[in-house]
Amino acid sequence: MDVFEKLRNRVAVFDEEFDAIFPEDVREHSNRHFTSVFIAQQATAFLTEAGAKSILDIGSGTGKYCLVASAISKADFTGVEHRNYQVEIGNECAKRYGLTNCKFIADNILNIDFSTYDAFYIFNPFLEAKDPTAQMDQAVKVGLKEYDIFSNYVYQQFEKMKVGTRIASYWTTKTQFPPSYEMVKSSFGDTLTFWIKTI
After folding, report:
1. How far apart are CA 192 and CA 83, in angstroms?
2. How far is CA 31 from CA 19, 34, 156, 183, in A?
């Protein structure tokens, strides 16, 4: 039974076991940059319980969140990531394990129209733009200017969404969310937060 069969059958899957599906050279970043299986399960339950059908992972990396989520939900999951090689890894994993409700696109977040999605997962995707120690590689330009541009764009897109839109956020500052969103619950010392647009 592979990790996806275990997830579908509600069998516990540990992160070390799941991360083995990824190449070793990206797996080394797991502790800091990959969503844990348990967090992915909690976030997906919240995002889909109100009927969301199309969910965007903002800064998906190699795709762990979307891969886990697509195994435990019938919703469609899309990850956007600006590193082409990580998008290729995510799509290869989705294909290899028959996850037809999961895909990854290589693009800049500034080119993404959020209105085509129902709900969102965000795991501090722009941290490396302001913290050099968080950089996985030198593939993208980073700096405080880029951090502000990306963060402001996401904020504006969230603001445009309809009432009832849900966001699951992990290690993301609360200032990323417009006042029109209410944090309805949190866990793990407020590192995992759940938001609903109320006005």
Report:
1. 25
2. 10, 6, 30, 26
pTM recorded for the entire structure? 0.94
- Check the CA dihedral 171-63-113-76 and report its sign: negative
Tokens representing 100?
Answer: 């037809």
Amino acid at 159: E
Reported residue count of the chain is 199
Question: What number of CA atoms fall less than 13 Å from residue 73's CA on the CB side?
Answer: 26
Strands across the sheet containing 119-122: 102-106, 76-81, 54-58, 119-122, 166-170, 192-197, 181-187
pLDDT in tens, 44-86: 999 999 999 999 999 999 999 999 999 999 999 999 999 999 9
* Per-residue model confidence as pLDDT tens digits over 125-150: 877 767 776 667 777 667 788 889 99
